[in-house]
Structure formats: structure tokens, C-alpha cells
Amino acid sequence: MAADPGKIDPMHQFEVQTIAPLFEVGGVPIGFTNSAFWMLVTLAVLWLFMLGGMKRQMVPGRWQMAVEGFTGFIDGMLRDNIGKDGRKYLPYVFSLFMFILFANLIGLLPLGLFAPVAKYVPELGLVTHPFTFTSHFTITGVLAIMSFAIVLIVGFFKHGLKFFSLFVPHGTPLVMKIIIFPIELVSFLFRPFSLGLRLFVAMIAGHILLKVLAGFVINSSNAGALWGGVVGIPSFALMVGVSALEILVAGIQAYVFALLTSLYINDAEHLH
């Protein structure tokens, strides 16, 4: 919420704020932020989800079936895209998919409704309002660089300098190789940028739209019953629809990130 009464700042929700200062590095203060807090929350929730679903019962319950279903889904995706060699990447790709999925979904929780209880303790307000850290390119970029680093390590470890043949299609004439190689190399180097940017843009766009619609609902209600009915009710209905769409987007973006990671690893494995 912006400082001016009745005015809602849709970008305020993405502001990284310090909950508690920790130390300084070269005069730069380093603190425990709301972003770090919600990363820990996501890890804790994911850990509990996996812990509750790994009971290995002969007759699995719904929780165990959910965990096994997610695991089987990612395992099938890796098998389809990489082949039998994909099984060894299951722990990483599965962890990546589940972390992004839970981060996206937790960021949509309406826990901010309880923020007024923290008006006397501003720091508490930072942890009662979910922070979608996947809406920051610094986070999605690091995740993308991790995947890209695995691709480079696998490619050079398995193929050596032959890995560079990935950038030149088999059977290309020598003259065309001189042109195609730098183009393919630049395209390859942009992969982590596009991978992180896609998730970042999708998350930030949806949350801005929800915030704008929330502003319409609040301000039209404050303007009176007439404007509340004409503007507020349709805006609220649209908010509900967009929220449902954002839940779908949260899953799709996690899947796309994991899928592209598996495709990039496949290139490193088989030099297609």
C-alpha cells in the first residue's frame, strides 16, 4: 500500500525489505529479508509435504499418492526427453519443479488479510504477507544459472571439446559453419536469461493485475454504494477468475522451467 490514502501501489508487493539486520560486508548492510523468510517457508512446507508422503505404505493414502504422482510425472518427463540417462537427473529436476511450484502457490495465499494485526509491529507485517520471490529476476536467474551450469558440466565432462559440435548441425557445409556457429553459440548462451526471464515475467504480471483489481475494489467501495456495485463487484469477480488462472499459471511455469531444463540437459547428453 502506498503512503497516500486510497492509493494502491501495485509494485510495493515486490519490494524486498529487511526484517532483521545481520552483519555488514564492505560497509554494505546484510539482513534477513522478507524474501529470505518466504524461501525458508517454502522449503519447510515442501519438506513437510515430502515427509508426509514418503511413508511407503502398501495401500498408499492420498498424501503418499500425491508425492508419488509428482515423482512419477517428473520421472516420465525426463524419460521422454532424455531417455534412460534421465533417471540420474530426477532428484535435481524434481526438486527444482516442486520448489518453484510451491513458491508460486504460497505467494498466492491471501494471508495479507491478516496483516492489520501487525500494524503495531511493522516487522511482523513483512512475514504475514506472502512474498512471491519468483517474481524477482535475481531468484529465477540463479535457478536458471544452476540448470545451465549442470548442462555445461555434463556436456564438457562427457564429450570434452566435442561439446562445441552442438552448435553446428551435422552435415553443414564449411562456409555455413562459419556463420551458424556464432549464431548458435549466442543463442545457447542466452538460454539461462530466457529461462529465468520467462518465470519472472509470468509471476510479476499476474500479481500486478491482481493488485490493480484489488485497488478498484477498495477504492470503488470507499466511493460509495453506487460505484461499489458498478465497479467493485465486477472487479472482484474478475479477481476471482484471475486468481484461478494464476493457480494454473503457477503450475505451468514450474512445469515449463523443469521441461526446458530437461531439454537442455538432453542436448548435453546426446549433442542433438
Structural summary, described in words:
With 272 residues, the chain is mainly alpha-helical. It is built from 8 helices and 2 strands; from the N terminus they run ββαααααααα. The chain has a two-stranded antiparallel sheet. A hairpin with a 2-residue loop joins β1 and β2. α1 crosses α3 (90-106), α2 packs across α3 and α5 (137-159) runs parallel beside α8 (225-270).
Describe the protein's topology:
Layout lengths: L17 E8 L2 E6 H19 L9 H20 L8 H17 L15 H7 L8 H23 L14 H16 L1 H33 L1 H46 L2
Antiparallel strand pairs: 1-2
Low-pLDDT stretches: none
How is the largest sheet built, in terms of strand order? 1-2
Structure class: mainly alpha
Overall pLDDT confidence: 85
Q: What summary fits the major beta sheet? A: 2 strands, antiparallel
- Taken as a percent bin, the fraction of beta residues is 5-15%
What portion of residues is helical? 55-70%
Query: Count the strands?
Result: 2
Question: How many helices in DSSP terms?
Answer: 8
Radius of gyration: 23 Å
Instruction: State the shape.
Output: globular
Distance between the termini: 50 Å
The string of secondary-structure elements, in order, is EEHHHHHHHH
